[in-house]
Amino acid sequence: MDERQFRPTPLMTLTTREGNIDVLDRVAGVGAFSDTLDHSEELDGFGVRFPVLDLPDLIRAKRAAGRPKDFAQLPELEALAALRRKHRERN
Question: What pLDDT sits at residue 57?
Fold first, then answer.
């Protein structure tokens, strides 16, 4: 694969042995790739460090995407955000 395959495709789902990965040219509710980096935090996984959307912007993106699978994930993500807020208030 190279950039020619990604350029004309706004959404591509790649299937890996670890699960599906959605590759997007922009994230609904957040913006283009450069915008997502401004709203990301870095995590380690599988021996690689990579940026992921922070929780508030992930929730915003799921709402903006409007897909049933995204709406189904909102209750759990919102509960996690509430727990994080509560934890910060205590500390």
Answer: 94
Backbone φ and ψ for 86, nearest 5 degrees, come out as -60, -40
Q: Count Cβ neighbours within 10 Å for each residue of 33-44 and write b for 16 or more, e otherwise.
A: eeebeebbeeee
Q: Which helix (H) or strand (E) holds 16?
A: strand 11-16
In this structure, what are the phi and psi dihedrals at residue 39, rounded to the nearest 5 degrees? -120, 35
pTM value > 0.85: no
Is the Cβ–Cβ distance between 27 and 56 less than 8 Å?
no
C-alpha–C-alpha distance, residues 26 and 11, integer Å = 9
Which among 74, 71, 51, 60 is positioned nearest to 29, based on CA atoms?
60
Tokens standing for residue 53:
């959307």
